[in-house]
Amino acid sequence: MDERKPRGVGGRLILALTLLFFYFPIFYIILFSFNDSRSLTRFSGFSLRWYEKMFADSTMMEAVLYTVLIALLATVISTVVGTVTAIGLSKSSRVLSAMVERINDLPVMNPDIVTAISLLMFFSVLAVRKGFATMLLAHIMFCIPYVMLSVTPKLRSLDPNLIEAAMDLGATPFQALTRVIVPQIRPGIVSGALIAFTMSFDDFVISYFTTGNGVNNISILVYTMSKRVNPSINALSAIVILLITLALGVVNLVPILREKNGRAAAKQPNRRLLAAAAAVLALAILIAAVAGSGAQRRRQKDAVEKYGSAVLKLYLPGEYLGENVISDFESQYGVSVIVENFDSNEMMYTKLQAGDSYDVLIPSDYMIERLIAGNYLQPIDKSLIPNLDNLSEAVTGLDYDVDGVWSVPYFWGSVGLVYNHENVDPAVMEAEGWSILHDTDYAGRIYVYDSERDSFMMAFKALGCSMNTDDPAEIEAAYEWLRQMNNTMSPIYVTDEVIDSMINGYMDVAVVYSGDATVILDENEDMSFFMPEEGTNIWCDAMVIPANAENPLLAHEFLNYMLTYEAAFDNSETVGYASPNAEVLEEMSTQEDLYAENEAYLPRSDGENDEMFHDNITLQRELSKYWIRVKAEN
Amino acid sequence: MKQFRSMTYPYVAWIAVMIVLPMLLIVLYAFTESGNDVLTFRFTFDNFVRFVTDRVFLSVLWRSLYIALITTVICVLLGYPIAYAIAQLPGRGNTIMILLITMPTWVNMLVRTYAWMGILQDEGVLNGFLGLFGIGPVPMIHTSFAVILGMVYNFIPFMILQIHTSLDKMDKNLLNAASDLGADRVQAFLRVTLPLSLPGVISGITLVFLPAVSSFFIPKLLGGGQYVLVGNVIESQFLTSGDWNFGSAISMIMAIIIMLSMYLTRKADVSVASNGKE
Predict the structure, then answer these.
(1) Mean per-residue pLDDT, A305-314
(2) Which residue out of B64, B108, B232 would a mutagenesis test of the A interface target, given it has the greatest number of A Cβ atoms within 10 Å?
(3) Does A267 score more than 50 pLDDT?
(4) Interatomic CA distance for residues B196 and A157, integer angstroms
(5) What are the Cα distances from residue B207, in Å, to A388, B7, B154, B212?
(6) Domain termination site, one of A256, A291, A326
(7) Same domain, yes or no: A205 and A341
């Protein structure tokens, strides 16, 4: 034991450095949860606004509950099953254990999206209603292999004669298991449980595709809501850390206090841990039950009579709603709205294909074409939507649905360049247009949107082609254009993080969607927005009602409501995209305290080279292949 | 031992339903032609041929394996001493340290990675700190350094846990016996502790390497999108191009390659384990 001291100093140092490494980002996250602005890199002042926002957001609180519940249940179940199975396998034939191990590797090794899609298809073949149960099953499925991976090595180093000895001494197999084996492999079980908990707590992709009906976990919120860097997420993380620290503190302190009081039997703390876990679990279930039944039952009688059901399921891009739109709609109509978010049109399409049902979707133009062609939609009953009169002319008669039979516009906008006018001369910008992305004066200073659709759009426009072209020679030329950009400009490929990065002014030029640009210009005065003369993508996202909607009547009511002045104003002001409501559009773009000074807000409606995308899956696959080549071929 | 063997039956049934059946759907996709995103039953090898004949995909796969390998090696080299140092702590300190190391993983991975993005910027905290000594700014974000750092940060807790598990509750009498027999500390470590902890190291490698190959959020955010990895390609097949058939084929190829390499590691594991017993 006298060796312990010198080892201790080195050991302590290692541990101190380890903790510094692990907690540095965590403190950073906590610090910025108190930031006054949206930025995650510049601290502009202390504020509690993100905490207020978080606590006011019932979906966030619900998500915390679901996350904890599912993580606890999945951990307990997978730890028990995984341990029992691992022990059984250690006494089974090699062939069987090798086979199970290989199969276990699959969920660990496969990209989450593959596991997710396979389960999505599987559940939809079985026609199971997705929600809490399916998500829990999926979590148990991917957690058990981690438990077994942790327990098995411990079992291997166990003396095989131990069990025989115990049973020779009169122990039943069950006693041999619980009294001899389990205590020996306990460290493995504990670390398996910890890893299972982590995996369940942090999972996004698999949860996203196996859940439904408004059951979200924290990760789903983080991925679909953090589009515009939402420090409420930081606040949420800080709270989670605090809660876990408290829980662990209690669990670890109780045995210490007991010991001080003496009398603690050696085995006691172990049981207490289980008891604590059980208590937390019971509590969580209780809260869930209370929250679920109380809020939903109160107001809905009238709505049920009128519409057949008082629930509306809405599926739309993340951060795409005005602050009070949903709560106003709910209280006005006495209904509750389940909001689910998607990251891309294709993600939404995947869920539809699997048969998931929603009442209202908000996809983009080209996707609406695809949905119409695939018979996914039902025609809109215009007599139920008197507010259609409020629509701006700019968004009527658009290509994807010329007569407005299937869709009602929600937001529209363009794609353009945000640039720092302190570093880039506006005259140069105007002269060069998209070719500024080839101007080596700005090499290493540009962000390009990481999507084949938008990148090829720029290239086609820069070369004077249609962005819907499928002429192989033009595609080849556009590919060359992008390749040259990649090789001479060292661009950084980004998606939503471009918003925060440009607000902070890290780069001089970025390809940005107009609504995001509105936000950037609002936060950083040095930034300007430019739509190249060569043309750009003018797009429109619109509300549609799926053919399998469970509540089409209420869906029409919702569409009508979203076209009211109040709702449209709230949406447009919060999100920054152009409103389809003529009056709101006019006001936003002319009133100084709104977006009059913000050149990103109002899309161009007279650009003769501007176009909308048409749906063409074959072309998109082709472009996707080229786009991977552009990025990976050096 | 029959009672023990029968404990495996429920799980065997479970994986047949929850893992094998859903995976068969993926295999089916991999071997069929893409009709407009529905499952067709026209059998084909095209998806595989397309992957193998395009050197871009091969280089992407190679890069993914390479980055995962480096991550794994660093995790072993750093994780072992950390796990060892923790195992030396007295009982309660041991538990608390393990909890302290696991806790950061309960903060969402995306949030943690965003934090690293802020820290590693040219104008970020780390460069601000270096600036105090007149150094820098050192470009860190969008470099291989940032990618590897982010990957190691994300995966090393699993390595530490696994190695710690194998060191914890190790029979201390073995070490005493070794020193009684004249072994010094280094020898005792090399001959006794290290071999006994190898199963933990190997299961740690599994836990780090397998998910690291297909990870893509971290390389994408910290590498600036120039690190196209296989996870990225597979994801875009499913979620942007809607080519499930090709996506399935790529993931099958990846699975087979990883299975082969894991088979070799496990073989090493078995021979180590049996050496230990003799």
Answers:
(1) 82
(2) B108
(3) no
(4) 8
(5) 56, 25, 12, 9
(6) A291
(7) no
Q: What Cα–Cα distance (Å) separates residue A350 from each residue in A115, A445, B217, B277?
A: 14, 36, 20, 52
The residue count of chain B comes to 278
Chain B contact for A493 (CB, 8 A cutoff): yes
Residue of A nearest to B106 (CA): A198
What average pLDDT values come out for chain B (278 residues) when binned by 10 residues?
75 87 88 68 83 86 91 95 88 83 86 88 84 83 91 94 83 72 76 82 88 86 83 85 87 87 72 51
- The answer to the question of residue A379 being in a domain is yes
Reported as a single tens digit per residue, the pLDDT across B199-235 is 889 889 988 998 898 887 888 889 887 778 888 888 8
Left if phi > 0, otherwise alpha if psi is -120 to 50, otherwise beta: which for B8? alpha
Question: Whole-angstrom Cα distance, residue B263 to residue A429?
Answer: 57
Q: Is A87 on the interface with B (CB under 8 A)?
A: yes
Is A184's Cβ below 8 Å from some Cβ in B?
yes
Mean of pLDDT values over A314-335: 89
Is A582 contained in some domain? yes
Residue A192: exposure state from Cβ atoms within 10 A (0-12, 13-18, ≥19): buried
Q: Which residue among A236, A261, A291 closes a domain?
A: A291
Q: How far apart are CA B161 and CA A149, in angstroms?
A: 11
pTM: 0.86
Residue B89 CB-half CA count within 13 A: 19
Asked if the Cβ–Cβ distance from B107 to A15 is below 8 Å, we say no
For chains A and B, count residue pairs whose Cβ atoms are closer than 8 Å. Answer: 322
Which residue from A182, A225, A175, A127 is spatially nearest to A548, judged by alpha carbons? A127
Range of the domain at A240: 28-291
- Using alpha carbons, list the distances in angstroms from residue A341 to A223, A356, B90, B219: 9, 14, 48, 24
Best probe of the B interface among A157, A209, A376, by most B CBs < 10 A, is A157
Q: Which of A146, A148, A164, A168 is nearest to A156 (CA)?
A: A148
CATH number at residue A628: 3.40.190.10
With respect to residue A73, please indicate whether it lies within any of the assigned structural domains.
yes
Please provide residue B40's backbone torsions phi and psi, each rounded to the nearest 5 degrees.
-105, 160
Residue B273, CA atoms < 13 Å, CB-side half-sphere: 20
Tell me how far apart the alpha carbons of residues A507 and A517 are, in angstroms, rounded to a whole number. 14
CB A59 within 8 A of CB A128: no
Q: Quick one: A227 and A211 in the same domain?
A: yes
Q: How far, in whole angstroms, is CA A339 from its chain's centroid?
A: 13
CATH architecture of B55-277: Orthogonal Bundle (1.10)
Cβ–Cβ below 8 Å for A41 and B239:
no
Say yes or no: A583 and A600 in one domain.
no
Residues 6+ apart with CB under 8 A from B95: A252
Q: Are A452 and A620 in contact (CB under 8 A)?
A: yes
> Which backbone phi and psi does A28 adopt, to 5 degrees?
-60, -45
User: % helix / strand / coil in chain B, to the nearest 5?
Assistant: 80, 5, 20
CATH number of the domain encompassing residue A220: 1.10.3720.10
CA dist A559 and A387 (Å) reads: 9
- Judge whether A128 lies within some domain: yes
A114, B109: Cβ pair inside 8 Å?
Answer: no
Q: Tell whether A39 and A130 lie within a shared domain.
A: yes
Contact (Cβ atoms closer than 8 angstroms) between residue A482 and residue A459: yes
Within 46-85 of B, beta carbons closer than 8 Å to A belong to 56-57, 59-60, 63, 81-82, 84-85
Q: Is the confidence at residue A609, as pLDDT, over 80?
A: yes
pLDDT digits (tens, 9 = 90+) for A102-122: 888 888 888 888 888 889 888
Closest residue in chain B to residue A109, using alpha carbons only: B210
Number of domains into which chain A is organized: 3
**Shared domain check, A570 and A527:** no
